[in-house]
Amino acid sequence: MGTGSVLLWAEHVHARARTRRLGPTPRVRSGPGAVVVLGFANRGMRANVVNRWRARMAVRSAGTSDAVTIITSGGPVRGEAPEASVLAQYLRDELGWTGSLLQETESRSTWDNVRNIIPMIESAEWIVFASNSLHAEKAREYLRRQRPDLADRLVIGDEYRFGEMILLKPLFAVVGLRKLRHLR
Prior knowledge:
Layout: H1 3-17, E1 33-38, H2 49-62, E2 68-73, H3 83-93, E3 100-104, H4 110-121, E4 126-130, H5 133-146, H6 148-151, H7 169-183
Parallel strand pairs: 1-2, 1-4, 2-3
């Protein structure tokens, strides 16, 4: 399989994952919503390339509504600073996010991320997880297992764009598919 085939395969895998494990009926993103940004192994005080990518996804998914809260989630997994704090700082300082922003700074895994943000999303009419498509799908499944009533509010986010971070997508596709297989 050539490089081009691998890259196209990864794009296909991510595009399909984007639409799985959502709420039972398509929801319009109106009313109060929550966009949850899942942190990624940040070693320092500056957002790494994956966290910057996820933060951009969050802002795109939030759109222009004043009724959206972005929630950053992640504890100090690989460094001293909580991933949530690094993400929040990047959202404010670099992306210019001026809307509502909450931080969950204790999580050490995706399961923890989902469990710990539940009190923050209970009043949201719609919910998006901002991460690469397979990781977001995993978070959606974890929400369904922990709080099926909230999982019914999951909507498609703007996490997938053809060609964006194309060189990382094959790795995330392989890892994501392996982890999703273990969920069963």
